[in-house]
Design goal:
Elements lengths: L7 H11 L10 H10 L7 H11 L2 E4 L4 E4 H4 L13 H18 L8 E5 L6 H16 L6 E6 L16 E2 L12 H14 L14 H13 L4 H8 E6 L9 E4 L10 H4 L1 E2 L1 H7 L7 E2 L3 H4 L4 E4 L7 H13 L1 E2 L7 E2 L3 E6 L1 H8 L5 H5 L1 E5 L6 H13 L7 E2 L3 H13 L9 H8 L11 H11 L11 H17 L4 E2 L1 H11 L8 H31 L2 H19 L4 E2 L6 E2 L3 H8 L9 H17 L10 H15 L5 H5 L6 H12 L5 H21 L1
Helix pairs in contact: 3-5, 16-17, 16-20, 17-21, 17-22, 20-21, 21-22, 22-26, 22-28, 22-29, 23-25, 23-26, 28-29
């Protein structure tokens, strides 16, 4: 609307456009039969419809991880990215969940299993479950996801004791209209549908009508002398069915109540006492199909904190999953068609895992681990999403603040590595930061981590929720202090102050987490010094000149040739001392120098073939090495102690350095802080050196 004020007319028009055209339209059974012949997917079961839903919103393939990323999770198109999921581990979990659903769609077994999302608190499993429900609601409102049910009409004209209020009755279980056909005739229709079906699955349907509908069908067939066509034409209307959790229609969530008050009727339904006096106790019309399994039929059942339920109460899930039926008290069995998803945290899972009496339940679950994110750059994106979705004060987030917060979280989650690899090196490897010359195999680290972890790597540690809370506190604290920037140092202070006081962090882990925090401080110190080094010693022309000199000597070294001396013009051997002075800035050992030289040589050759001129700024490793060498050459002329005190430094010089840091993403205030912090650290190391 381009900023114009919405009118009632425009709002009404928008709403009408969002509603399926046939939502209020009653159609005949004959129409529905033609519709499913035209598009057999219309009569899919729940697993098939949910499986297609994930593909409907788009997919991308992550070749490195071998994982399909589903855009409803990686981009969240329905909510403008507000609920985007980050991290390789989470997308692996989502990929595994969808594979289970797709296997169920093909009838391979998982359709008879509970999909149990297992993870620590704050790992995203509940939010993913919520997202699936929201997208299922939206999908069933589209043409691609449409589904239908039926309602009985004019029942009082035939059935004498029918309550006038029940003259029209919607299918209590929202069943597919094809269930109205006797199985033999239905099988014939399905056989024809599958001949034209373009899908990786087969349409199946061997459900029986719910007891109330079966009563109506039997009564009407008796009245019409078994003329099925007359029954369906005179008493059945087909209607569009759109999932809605608020209406408890095809989507249902179930939360455990107090253990002493758990009642299976919450799941399976109960007697409708208002109808008992009218129909009698044994009449199926006197049953209230209000149980959670009834409401979820044709769609999604979500069981929150499932393993907190009493063991006896979980038995209902055995029939619901394995037999795809429920058996309410004082009522015949009822067939159900739904994707059953459960969620549980680690303590409940560990408790039930060793319980021999839970063996049958465990056998009917498909566990999908939802670990914490293990790449700290991806973790930082979670915090950025949090800030985007909130009303954040005018606060500048300084470089490294969110990444270092994420690094702390990752260090608490990964298993201790072996083979001489430090914990920080492992975190960097997971983050994709290990150089080719480093003898670290990230894939092997992941394999070893999975083997050494209790249940799986990332299933323990500090949650993004805790870190996000501390970032929020740090922001508000900065606001109260009149500061308009959030620095890593401020975030570290809040971590340190609150680690011992947070209920989700076991007391036994606190001391270890303090050590991890010190590792993060040390990593930040190196990055802060690197940023200041970049600002104080940065000289594009000098870096270009040194880069060209380095490449001239590398090429001569590789070709066993000479190079012209810059001053005398004479031919000379490659300057090994100069070459090593650059390479040592990347800690490249003597025995790996040839690999690095060949690597940069190949890079230059590829660019030359493409017609691209040499620019060391385009090679991150070479640029860093040259910057560090330039820093070594210049640092002896810099008064680092003066950086700590504004009174000891020339204003113009300090302003130039602050401007250089601002160009790197710092705020002016944050630049002053990092100058003082890094200056103090370098001055200390110079004195110690």
């Amino acid at each position: 609307m381009n900023g114009d004020r919405a009118t009632l007319e425009s709002l009404s028009r928008q709403y009408k456009e969002s509603v399926p055209e046939d939502l209020r339209e009653a159609k005949s059974f004959e129409w529905y039969l033609d519709a499913v012949y035209e598009d057999p997917r219309t009569t899919r079961n729940a697993h098939q419809r949910v499986a297609d839903m994930f593909d409907h919103y788009g997919t991308d393939y992550d070749e490195d991880a071998g994982v399909v990323e589903y855009r409803m999770a990686s981009e969240d198109p329905l909510h403008d990215g507000e609920n985007t999921f980050y991290g390789r581990e989470i997308h692996e979990s989502i990929h595994e969940f969808v594979n289970k659903v797709k296997s169920g769609a093909r009838g391979l077994g998982p359709q008879k299993r509970i999909k149990l999302l297992l993870g620590p608190v704050g790992s995203g499993k509940s939010h993913f479950d919520w997202m699936v429900r929201r997208y299922f609601e939206d999908y069933t409102a589209t043409d691609a996801g449409r589904m239908y049910t039926f309602r009985w009409t004019d029942l009082g004209d035939v059935i004498r004791d029918q309550d006038p209020e029940d003259d029209t009755v919607v299918s209590p279980m929202n069943q597919d209209p094809l269930v109205l056909l006797p199985q033999e005739q239905r099988d014939g229709v399905l056989e024809r549908l599958n001949e034209d079906l373009d899908a990786p699955y087969t349409i199946r349907n061997d459900q029986t009508l719910d007891p109330a509908s079966e009563f109506y069908l039997d009564s009407l067939l008796a009245h019409y002398d078994d003329d099925l066509q007359a029954v369906l034409e005179n008493h059945i209307e087909v209607i569009r069915l759109v999932a809605s959790e608020n209406k408890r229609q095809c989507v249902e969530t179930f939360e455990p109540k107090d253990k002493k008050n758990q009642d299976e009727t919450e799941l399976t339904g109960d007697v409708n006492y208002s109808k008992l006096a009218i129909y009698g106790e044994s009449d199926p019309r006197a049953f209230d199909y209000a149980g959670a399994f009834c409401n979820a039929n044709r769609g999604l059942f979500s069981g929150e904190e499932l393993l907190k339920l009493q063991r006896e109460f979980l038995y209902d899930f055995l029939h619901a999953s394995q037999e795809q039926t429920i058996k309410p008290k004082n009522n015949p069995r009822i067939d159900i068609d739904q994707v059953i998803v459960g969620r549980t945290n680690m303590p409940e899972y560990r408790e039930k895992k060793g319980d021999e009496k839970m063996e049958a339940f465990n056998d009917r679950t498909k566990r999908i681990d939802f670990p914490y994110v293990l790449e700290y750059d991806e973790e930082a994106e979670i915090y950025r999403k949090m800030l985007r979705n909130a009303d954040v004060p005018d606060m500048h987030i300084e470089p490294h603040a969110l990444e270092m917060a994420g690094l702390f979280g990752v260090l608490t989650r990964v298993a201790d590595p072996d083979g001489g690899v430090s914990l920080v090196q492992k975190a960097k490897a997971y983050n994709g930061e290990i150089d080719e010359s480093d003898d670290i195999d990230a894939r092997k680290l992941r394999e070893n981590g999975e083997e050494s972890a209790d249940i799986g790597e990332g299933m323990d540690g500090v949650s993004a929720r805790f870190i996000g809370d501390e970032i929020a506190e740090a922001i508000m604290d900065s606001t109260h202090r009149g500061r308009s920037y959030l620095s890593p140092l401020s975030v570290f202070s809040h971590f340190e102050a609150n680690l011992e006081n947070h209920g989700s962090i076991p007391e036994d882990n606190v001391e270890r987490y303090y050590r991890y925090l010190e590792l993060v401080r040390e990593e930040y110190k190196e990055r802060a010094i690197e940023d200041v080094r970049h600002a104080l010693a940065y000289d594009l022309e000098e870096i270009q000149r040194q880069g060209e000199k380095y490449m001239d000597h590398v090429m001569a070294y590789i070709d066993d040739d000479t190079v012209e001396d810059e001053l005398t013009g004479r031919e000379q051997e490659p300057d090994e001392t100069f070459l090593r002075s650059v390479e040592e800035k990347l800690e490249i050992p003597e025995d790996r120098k040839n690999d690095f030289r060949q690597e940069v040589s190949n890079w230059v050759s590829r660019r030359a073939r493409d017609g691209t001129s040499f620019d060391p700024q385009d090679n991150d490793r070479l640029r860093r090495a040259l910057e560090r060498k330039l820093w070594e050459d210049k640092k002896h002329n810099i008064n680092f102690s003066a950086l700590v005190s504004a009174n000891e430094l020339d204003d113009d010089e300090r302003s130039a350095w602050i401007d250089a840091l601002v160009n790197q993403g710092y705020s002016p205030e944050g630049a002053r802080e990092v100058l003082e912090f890094a200056g103090a650290e370098v001055a200390k190391s110079e004195l110690e050196g």
